[in-house]
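Handoff note, outgoing to incoming analyst
You'll be picking up this chain. Sequence as last confirmed:
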Amino acid sequence: MNTFTPNVRTLLILLFTSVMPFTHALPAETEYPGIIVHSGFADDRRWGEFPIGFDFDFFGNTYSTFYVSSNGQVTFGAMTNAFNNDNIPDGGRPDNYIAPFWDDLIIDATGDIMYQTIGTAPNRKLIIQFNNMSF
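Most recent structure output, in case you need it:
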C-alpha cells in the first residue's frame, strides 16, 4: 500500500496540472461598437427613449423602445433611476424592467453605456453594454 499511495498522488498532480488551465480560462469579451447613450461620469441619471430595432414582447406587452439608467436598469414604457432592490410587482415602481446590474452605481469618468441592435429578422438582438461602472 505504501508504494501505491505515491503513484496515486503523482497521478492526481498530473491530472490537475493538465486540467486546470482549461477550467479557468474565460472567453474573450465581445464589445459591440454601439450608439453611445452616455459617456463620462454620471450618478443616478436616466436616458431614453431609444429604439429597440424590433418589437419586443415582455410579459404580454409589446415594446419598440427602451430607457436605460446609470444604476443598471433597462425599462420599457417609463423611465426610472431607482437603485433600491425592491420586490416586483410593486405599485410604487415600474414593473416592466430588466435589471442586470440594479444597484446604486455610477458611470466612471472613463465609462459609458452603449446599445446596438444586431442580427437580421427574425433573429435580432438588442445589446446594451455598461462599461466601467462603479459603486
